[in-house]
Amino acid sequence: MNNSQNNIFHPRPSLPAPRHSKGALHWVKTNLFNGWFNSILTLLAVALVSFTLPGFIQWAFIKAVWVGDTEVCKLSDDGACWSFIDAKFRVLMVGVYPESESWRAVVGTAIFGAIIVATVANWLTGKVLLVAWLLVPVFGYFLIGGGFGLKEVDPSLWGGLMLSVLLATVGIIVSIPVGILLALGRFSGTPMIKALSIAVIELVRGVPLITILFMASVMMPLFLPPGFIIDNMLRIQIGMIIFSSAYIAEVVRGGLNAIPKGQFEAASSLGISYLKAIWLIILPQALRHVLPPLIGRCIALFKDTSLVIVVGLLDFLGMIKNSSLDSQWLGYETEAYVFGAFVYWVICYSLSRYGALLEARDPTSHSK
Amino acid sequence: MKFSLPKLNHRFSLITNGISLLGQTMLIGLVLYGAYYLLATTQANLLERGIESGFDFLGKEAGLPISDKLIDYQPSDSYGYAFVVGILNTLLVSFIAIILATILGVIVGVARVSKNWIVSKIAAFFVESLRNIPLLLTLFFVYTLLLTTLPGVRKALNPFDGVFLSRRGLYVPEPIFMDGFVFVIAAFAIAVIIAYCFTRWAKSYQARTGYPLPKILISLAIILILPLTVYLAMGSPLSFEMPILKGFNFVGGITLKPEFSALLIGLVLYTSAYIGENVRSGLQSVSTGQIEAANALGVPKSTIIRKVLLPQALRVIIPPTTNDYASLVKNSSLAVAIGYPDMVSIGGTIIGQNGQSIEIIAMWMAVYMTINLVISGLMNWLNVRVQIVER
Question: How far is A325 from chain B (nearest CA, A)?
Fold first, then answer.
């Protein structure tokens, strides 16, 4: 009986993989040099990288000037002059905003940053989150523009990254509800509402943002009764909201399309009213579906705020362009643009990462 | 496709219809009143500011100089004609940019799914950096680089005979068509028709017998050889006007101003990043099993790409690419920021001169809507052709 224990079949442990199919050398072989075509490509790519990257690192870091004025920068000819950014930092961030009121930008950034951190970390949820974000535009305009005890600052003095972020944030927060309304209008069974929504959406989507901005800045005053004046900044903000709403409406429409008809029918068979069904059943599901493209629209809108330079506002890009025209710091356009590109990139890339995070966090997501 | 909210239930829809009839009437009334009110205030405002209305200004003398133009234009020509010059410039830059962005985008997309690690990483870097930076910044950057790194006119780079590259722009020889060239164009048209008929016949031949013919090769041969023979027979009715340095600038030839080049490069780089992503997702949407099955059946690699991979990938690639083409045309309006005289730039100047913003903006909208409709029409036609044929 004891024998049966010994009769169990024990396979020999498997041999290790052959030496030529593991390790770094194998990785290089299969990923870089499998076949003559790939080998040529790899060599070309390596040549490209080794041609550009060391030069860039030399310019941006090793030979760069970090502190000092123009005189120091002129000495180091083939390095970047980052002290130029340092000297222009205030202008780049807030433009010509009065110096005595700069603290407001700092406070605003701190509060805005806190809300963002709280959102990303999932500390705020549900209605609190919604209310917090809906208060951002009101609070932002109040803090930057003044009023109610704070010293008023004319909108023509707003600028820099502050203006870009303000335009984009307010634009997106206001245009999401407007866009949802437009999308629901397009879905509506009432022909008149449907036709109006389609007309607005398609007309706006058919033309470039610049024409909308021109419209807001040049044409809108003609439409308003005399004495009723909207500031240029605010008009452009309205233009951006109209533009962004049309695109968000199309995104939301995609989500509405994905909701099966049975959901409506189930809601109505339970005696739930039309508005309640939309608000409690349809929209939560539809918006969940379209979160990634909605984040995409946020990124696009933030990038699009750079166009306001064409209608005379000096946002972040405008300040970058202007700062390189300073006679004291002439010829540092490259530094200015590289810094600007870096800032835009960091913001947009973080947004897209956040979108990916949301998608991964979604409990109903099927893409695992 | 038809989109409408499903009716909740019969009784409910009756009620909503009852409400909506009243609501719709009120809405129509509101819209009409709003339109009337806007019209009235606008009329009053225009009168007060002394701005004319209507499209009469299109016939008046423009007096604005335009640096880049496809057709002959003098400042003494009319506003309408100046606007047409702008439209042509918009079309030119969009057309070239669409072609180049497609080519570059396909390369980037294929590189991104490449098994070659370093190549795919470079493509990913390209896509991620360009998509996360505003196009306008890219445009300014390219424009500045062109202006600062290129040499002056006197030291212009001369890579080929008759081609000069300097800070003032790129100078290339201008083809001059002589009398007999009409016949060459006619021969080309005939060749295209013959090639088309041949392709159709070859298809039916393959359907009947199962023998494939080298359709593309033969078509190309027809299209190339026929016009070439006519060209030689007519005694080469084509010559080139070379750009020559005279004084401070080049004279003759075709000039591509740095504004045009910067706009073109910026649009191509930006859009190709987006098209690259479309191509990548299209290629990845084809399941690997399909390729493996084709390999197992011994289908040659090029045939796998043409007959298995591409037809399925194109279905995913074409719809988003249509949108990207449309945004490219709209993005070409950024020309105004670097001073290339496109439609928006010229229109903006006209607004500055006579203040007739409503008319100009309406014209912009009309032209852009038309271009968009044409693009989506063409791409829909293409899309229908590559979609799965349902039996």
Answer: 12
Total-model pTM: 0.86
Inter-residue contact A318 to A159 (CB < 8 Å): yes
Whether B43 contacts chain A with CB within 8 A: no
| B108: chain A residues, CB-CB within 8 Å | none
CA dist B11 and B7 (Å) reads 10
Contact A73, A328 (CB under 8 A): no
Question: CB-based burial of residue B99 (10 Å sphere; 0-12 exposed, 13-18 middle, 19+ buried)?
Answer: exposed
CA distance, residue B129 to nearest chain A CA (Å): 7
Nearest CA-CA distance, residue A348 and chain B, Å: 5
Calculate the CA dihedral of residues B192, B198, B199, B204 and round it to 10 degrees: 160
Low-confidence ranges of chain B (pLDDT < 70): 1-20, 388-391
Rounded Cα distance between B314 and B384, Å, is 11
- The residues in B 226-285 lying below 8 A from A, measured between CB atoms, are none
Amino acid B156: pLDDT:
79
CB B64 within 8 A of CB B346: yes
Q: For chain A, what's the residue count?
A: 368
> Which chain A residues are closer than 8 Å to B38 by Cβ?
223
Q: Average pLDDT of A45-49?
A: 90
pLDDT of residue A367: 47
Shortest CA distance from B356: residue in chain A: A219
Give the pair of three-digit tokens for residue B238.
């084509």
A contacts of B44 (beta carbons < 8 Å): 226
> pLDDT tens digit string along B340-351?
999 999 998 888
Interface test mutation site (partner B, options A34, A197, A204, A207, max chain B beta carbons within 10 A): A207
Please name which of A219, A10, A35 lies closest in space to residue B46, comparing C-alpha atoms. Answer: A219
Mean pLDDT over each residue of chain A, to the nearest integer: 86
- Per-residue pLDDT, B88: 93
Residue of B nearest to A307 (CA): B136
Residue B369 forms contact with A (CB below 8 Å)? yes
Question: Identity (one letter) of the amino acid at B23?
Answer: G
Is pLDDT above 70 for A368? no
Q: What is residue B18's predicted lDDT score, i.e. its pLDDT?
A: 52
Task: Give dist(CA A115, CA A121) in Å, integer.
Answer: 10
**Token pair for A316:** 């972040």
Search chain A and give the residue with CA nearest B10: A268
Check pLDDT > 60 for residue A287: yes
User: Is B7 within 8 Å of A49 when comparing Cβ atoms?
Assistant: no
Which residue's entry shows tokens 């169990």? Answer: A8
Question: Using CA atoms, how far apart are residues B159 and B168, in angstroms rounded to an integer?
Answer: 16
The verdict on ipTM greater than 0.85 is: yes
What's residue B196's pLDDT? 92
Nearest C-alpha in A relative to B348: A214
Size of interface A-B (CB pairs under 8 A): 178
Closest Cα in chain A, distance from residue B212 (Å)? 29
- Say which residue the tokens 């498997």 belong to: A14
- How far apart CA B347 and CA B336 sit, in angstroms, is 10
Per residue in A223-265, pLDDT (tens digit) is: 887 777 788 889 999 999 999 999 999 999 989 888 888 888 8
CB A65, CB A86: distance < 8 Å: no
Backbone angle region of A339, left / alpha / beta, with phi > 0 → left and psi within -120 to 50 → alpha: alpha
CB A127 within 8 A of CB A268: no
Q: State which amino acid sits at residue B365.
A: M
Which residues in chain B touch residue A297, judged by CB atoms under 8 angstroms apart? none
